[in-house]
Structure formats: C-alpha cells, structure tokens
Known about the structure:
This protein is α/β, with parallel strands linked by helices.
Amino acid sequence: MQSFGFVRSRVAYVISVALLCGLLLAAGCTNPEPSGSAQTVTPSGTATVRLAYFPNVTHGVALVGVGRGTFAKALGSEAKLETQVFTAGPAEIEALFAGAVDIGYVGPGPAINGYLKSRGDALKIIAGSASGGAGLVVRKDSGITDLKGLAGKHVAIPQVGGTQDISLRHALGEVGLAPTNKRGTVDVVQYAPAEAETQFLQKAIDAAWLPEPWLARLEKQGTVTLLFDERDRWPDRQFASAVVIVSSKFLKEHPDLVQKFLSAHVETVEWAKKNPDEARKVIGEQIKDATKKAIPDDILKKALARTDMTYDPLRSSVLTFADWSRQLGYQREGRDALIGLIDEAPLNAVLTARNLAPIK
C-alpha cells in the first residue's frame, strides 16, 4: 500500500469531476486511476478490482482483509487487487462515480447521498462492516457537559456530508441547536481525524464527533473527555457506521468477483471475532502503514471495544440516516427513492454457502 497525506481542512468540498485528481490527493488516495470504466483489465487479461477504505477502526474488516491477504487470495488469478485509502466518504463516492473505485468501505451517509445523486445508477450497499465506533469528545476545559453545551462552540467533523456530520447535526437539532450556516450558534468545522489532536491543543476546536481510533487516542492524551459513545443513542446499541458498497457497473460486469470478495469479507469478520488479539495487531499495522502514525495497543484495544464488526448492513439504521439526511437538507428524496440502495442477495448467497443465517 502506498502512503498518503491527510486532508488539510476547512477547505470547501468540491464535487466537480474535473477536479477529481485534486480531490483524491486531498483525501489521501493511493493508486489513483483515470476516470472512465468502473473496471480495468491488465494486459494479461486479468481484471483489476480497486478497493477503497479508511485507516479507521470502523473499517477494521477492510484493514484485516487487506493485511492478511484474504481479499487477494479470494480473487485468485482472476483479478488483481489494488487498494486506495481515503479519509472521508464524499471523496470516495466521487472516485466511484469517476470509475476509480469498484468496491469500497464507507459510511452510510455518503453511500446514501451517492445513490441518490446518481438516481440509483452508481452503487449499491451489499454488506455491513461495522456498528458503533464513533462518538463525541469535548475538550476538558471547554465547560461542555451535554449537547446543549455546544452552543457557541467550535465542533469538528471529518467532512461535511459524512456520517459523523449527519449524526452531529441531527443531535444538535434534537436539543434545539443549529450550525452557524443554518442561522444557529454552533460552528461546525471540517478536519481530518488525525488533525483533531493539534486543533484541540491549540484550542481551535471545543469538541469533535469522530470515528475510532481517534476517540480513544485523544482520550489517552488527556486533552478530551468522551461525552458519549454513539451506540448509546441507538436502539439495541446498533447502527451502521461502515458499509460495503459496489459500483453497479462492476457488479453487473463481474458478479463472480463481487461474490468472491463478499465471501472473503464474511470470512474476515468471522476470523476477527474469533481472533481479536491477532486482528487488533493487523489493524494497528495497517493504520500505521497508511498514516505513518502508530496506534499504541492499549488505544486500539479500547477503540475496538467500542466497535462491532459485522457483515449485516443494519438496514433500519441506514434508512434512519437517510431520514436525517433529508431533514438536514442534504437530500430531497424520501425512503421510496432508496428501494434499490441495499441489496442483500449476493451476501445471502455467500452466507447460505457458508452455512450461516441469511440477513432478513
């Protein structure tokens, strides 16, 4: 895997495909491909599967699958696996639109927005990846003790339109607050998770809604307090924080490769649950390789304790994110426009073949 640089934030998000290369670089993308077809073929005739994911604990299945070689092994001689690392979902979706991503791990918010923006043509959610692994931390000297305390404060999210952004803005609305761009008092600012530490130290931000392992890392450094684990805000403490998406074009042209990838995905989830210590080691190695920053084992252990790996897309929570996104003005369409967003059929075929219960 190639190295990448993190997004230097508060830069306005640009969705023009003409600026795709700049977006990919800003998002920390490796192995960039030109726009065009949703798949490439090497001179020898072997298909190339371009896999995208984040260096986050919520993308632990991807990190383990890549690190152990499970995905590459499952594809076998039929396809070459190339990896791309992003730090925010909207940029990954733009890359998929341009044909530079075939399969990706991403938050439900960007997946929903991407599906609607393409009128259902560009992608589908074909599996879950993680539940939990996100929350709100506040600077210890900020005086914030609850959500209402965010009034007049600077609150960071990884990227506007991302899953944590949607969760934050919905939570603000629940307590009668709003961002400054909606005539409210909460200044919602955009920073890559790895930059949050510096921003807290400089007192440029008062709070941040972030994915793991950044919550646990900031806690260990002693500058912040965890206000709440996001799982506590959901029924049964379950919500989709990361899902697996596939380019509709790639799914149509290579259903066999998608099936093989999903089989490796399920295998990785099962292996990680049975071998948590080994999985944690692989995740740590992959995050260090991508970010050039090692995550101490105690931090990873704490972060993983708040993150549940799963292949269930947790459909109900995805649709709830869609409802929130509509309320926030990120989309105009209701649930009727999302009928084809989640397709469990390929996953259920894999589960049946592995003698596992299908997703209802």
